[in-house]
Design a protein that fits this description.
Layout (H helix, E strand, L loop, with lengths): L1 H41 L17 H7 L2 E4 L1 E15 L3 H32 L6 H28 L2 H4 L3 H12 L3 E7 L10 E4 L6 E8 L12 E6 L11 E17 L5 E3 L2 E8 L2 E6 L4 E3 L2 E4 L8 E5 L1 H8 L8 E2 L1
Antiparallel strand pairs: 1-13, 2-3, 2-7, 3-6, 4-5, 4-7, 5-6, 7-12, 8-9, 8-14, 9-10, 11-12
Protein name: HlyD family efflux transporter periplasmic adaptor subunit
Keywords: Signal
Organism: Novosphingobium aquiterrae
Length: 334
């Protein structure tokens, strides 16, 4: 019996020792876990880490994927441009004048023919009285006066430049406008003297076209009090210059301006400024343009670049996306 008691006591002692060792190990494991958890809490997370600075792309394969092409900037001389706007005119009244003039010419021709016939009969003493001849002459003169007035209304209501085109050209112009192939616009550029034949650029840069001034408009702008001029727009831009629509317009002042010529495709807009990417070795750096001026060939700049600098003339938007870390919602090609 004592032998069984001794065995039981020995088993209980071993169990107690095992429990003690296990408890010590659990406590150490818990301390280690708490220490590791505290270290993890102190360690910076991806969310808190400072974003890495985007380096300019230098890999030729990446540049090829972006479609980056380069060219050297050159100096150029161009006339300074002044900005204004062109507004499409309603040609409904012009069409009415054209129809009235045609009707007046037809009536004048008929009355003149009748007066000539009655005068011939009167001279031959055949059933025509002097009174009827005089009445026919008066009617012919009245119809001729109505014809002249109808033709003069073009110049009085629109401008002398348009009336100089002639009745046939004006009738053809009305037909083209009705078909959407042309538009009659009034151009207002404050401070610029636009004589007949002056070339004016109309439309947004990059898609603009040039038109020639016909002559002065019939009346000044009620708000600007400026003496506008008339011009005819043909081609795709004619649909954008229909009655009431306003598009940008620019004209040369005759004063020469020199600077560096930057192609429109090379410019990106970001944070309210205009930029280009200049090649520096194998990398590209973003350069702000100082005092850019729009010309038909692109932009003239007077600061930020120097003659001979190599810039990206295509793929600049992709370079901007990489340079700005992808936050280029504001950026757009020129």
């Amino acid at each position: 019996m004592s032998r069984w008691r001794s065995a039981a006591w020995a088993g209980m002692g071993a169990a107690a020792m095992a429990l003690g060792l296990y408890g010590a190990g659990a406590i150490k494991h818990s301390d280690a876990a708490q220490t590791a958890s505290a270290e993890d809490a102190d360690a910076p997370t991806d969310k808190d880490a400072a974003p890495a600075k985007n380096e300019p792309v230098t890999d030729p394969a990446a540049l090829a994927r972006l479609g980056v092409k380069t060219a050297a900037v050159t100096t150029t001389v161009a006339s300074q441009m002044v900005d204004g706007f062109a507004r499409g005119l309603d040609v409904g009244p012009l069409a009415a004048i054209v129809a009235e003039a045609e009707a007046a010419r037809a009536a004048a021709a008929a009355s003149q023919a009748e007066a000539s016939r009655l005068e011939t009969l009167y001279r031959q003493d055949v059933s025509a009285s002097r009174r009827s001849v005089e009445a026919a002459r008066a009617l012919a003169l009245a119809d001729a006066a109505r014809t002249r007035l109808a033709e003069q209304r073009v110049g009085l209501e629109f401008g002398s430049g348009l009336s100089r085109l002639g009745s046939g050209a004006i009738r053809q112009l009305v037909s083209e406008i009705a078909a959407g192939r042309a538009a009659l616009v009034r151009i207002d550029i404050p401070g610029a003297m636009l004589a007949p034949g002056t070339v004016v650029e109309i439309g947004e840069p990059g898609s603009a076209l040039t038109v020639r001034v016909l002559g002065a408009a019939a009346a000044a702008d009620a708000r600007l009090q400026s003496a506008g001029v008339l011009a005819i727009v043909r081609g795709p831009l004619a649909r954008q210059a229909q009655a009431g629509r306003i598009v940008p317009a620019r004209a040369a002042t005759g004063v020469a301006s020199s600077g560096l010529l930057v192609p429109r495709e090379a410019i990106v807009r970001f944070q309210g400024r205009m930029w280009v990417f200049r090649q520096n070795g194998k990398a590209f750096e973003r350069i702000a343009l100082d005092d850019p001026q729009s010309i038909p060939q692109g932009w003239i700049v007077r600061g930020g670049l120097k003659a001979g600098d190599v810039i990206a003339v295509s793929g600049a938007t992709g370079l901007l996306a990489l340079d700005a870390g992808g936050a280029v919602a504001e950026a757009e090609g020129d």
